[in-house]
Amino acid sequence: MKRRALLRAGAGLLGALAFSVAAQAAALKIGVTPGPLADSVHVAAQEAGRQGLEVEVVEFSDWTAPNLALASKDLDANYFQHQAFLDNAVRESGYPLRAVGIGILSNVGLYSTRIKSFAELKEGARVAVANDPVNQGRGLQLLEKAGLIRLREGVGPRARLGDIVDNPRHLKLVEIDGPQLVRAIDDVDLAQGYPGHFAAAGTLDPGSALLFSGVDDLYYAIRFVARTDNADAPRLQRFIRLYQQSPAVREQIKKSNANNERLYSLPWLHNGAETAQPK
After folding, report:
1. Which CATH architecture has domain 109-212?
2. Which CATH number fits domain 2-106+218-272: 3.90.1150.10, 1.10.260.40, 3.40.50.720, 3.40.190.10?
3. Domain locations along the chain
4. CB under 8 Å to 239, separation ≥6 — which residues?
5. What count of other Cβ atoms lies within 10 Å of the Cβ of residue 13?
6. Does residue 5 register a pLDDT over 50?
7. 149 has pLDDT over 80
8. Alpha-carbon torsion angle 221, 226, 229, 233, nearest 10
């Protein structure tokens, strides 16, 4: 009887150990959207593999699915959104998500293939902006900075089209899905866009924006985002540190931004800090 009990206990222990090993061996799944961010994460994943940490990079074609997949536990983390976008997503969906590490801070610019200066922008010109609440606010603030529109006082990054209180040139604002803005550039007179997207598409010089936003706004730095129940997972934190510290990742980021370091910054390096948590 004792022997059978010991055998059962031993089998149970082996089963638990096998489950534990399998869980540890499962790849860390990081969700991204195609483009420069994905390229840098792919490089980090290759480096992680060489260090014994298996990472699977999962690409999504839109800006909604990565958070849904993360909340559904199909991902361990995602890397595609800044804090403003995350705050809005959590507010609208109730997903238990939070930022767990800082990534790239990209400028946003106003681009055109039809004009060389804002003075050339004609009455009724078509201007493309992102259709999601957060990125649209950033684009509208940039249009206001250019003197093309005026927004309701105090609206800030939450600005939407309805917050435009003055549009002297009667510009026609066209809402377009964020990742598709780069493809819309030839169909409009002016478009909001991220330099990295133009660099990846190879259709326009990413440094040719008529106006750039500032590069020191940490609120718009891309975040590594996880669920609240796995935010402190050692494997995830290890991967974030590797991403931030890898020379190969930094070289890929530079390459993805057309070797133009004016188009982005790496906030975790500020003040000599190698790692930085979100604020």
Report:
1. 3-Layer(aba) Sandwich (3.40)
2. 3.40.190.10
3. 2-106+218-272, 109-212
4. 28, 30, 44, 48, 53, 55
5. 10
6. no
7. yes
8. -90
- pLDDT of the residue at 130: 95
Token reading at 3: 């022997």
DSSP H helices, 74-117, are 83-93
Indicate the SS3 state at residue 273.
Answer: coil
- β-partners of residue 127 are 173, 190
Longest dimension (CA), the chain: 92
pLDDT of residue 24: 52
Q: Give the position of tokens 């105090």.
A: 154
Assess whether pLDDT exceeds 50 at residue 240: yes
**pLDDT tens, residue by residue, 186-195:** 999 999 998 8
How far apart CA 230 and CA 227 sit, in angstroms, is: 6
